[in-house]
Write a structure and sequence with these properties.
Helix content is 5%, strand content 40%. The chain contains 1 helix and 6 strands; from the N terminus they run ββαββββ. Strand 3 and strand 4 form a beta hairpin. It is globular. The mean pLDDT is 93.
Length: 110
């Protein structure tokens, strides 16, 4: 796969629950439906809106490095609250708690 663009961001995790999303936690901003049983199996991320403006649209594939356990290919399917910038959120299962990484590299793949 060809790399189109690279960003350095902060990465965190989120769960498909109303307190961390909205009143429809199993539907992403892109309209994709999250499986309640195993949300993390989708390998979906939410991106801050400034990254959308730079080309990270819904459906985009990115390669993430710098997190260890979450390194690899992910798909953009959700959008973060407008208060965040230069940030991604990994959609994970409820059993996974805590997680924040600085200086994470994301590469937009073609």
């Amino acid at each position: 796969m060809e790399i189109i663009k690279i960003w350095i961001v902060t990465a965190t995790i989120y769960h498909a629950v109303p307190a961390q999303t909205d009143d429809t936690p199993f539907i992403t901003a892109s309209g994709a439906h999250i499986m309640e049983c195993c949300a993390g199996s989708h390998r979906w991320i939410a991106v801050s809106r400034d990254l959308e403006d730079e080309g990270l649209f819904f459906g985009a594939k990115v390669y993430v490095t710098g997190t260890g356990v979450f390194d690899g290919i992910w798909t953009v399917q959700d959008r973060m609250n407008k208060r965040w910038t230069k940030r991604i959120d990994f959609l994970v299962d409820k059993e996974i708690t805590g997680g924040k990484w600085e200086d994470v590299e994301i590469r937009l793949l073609k």
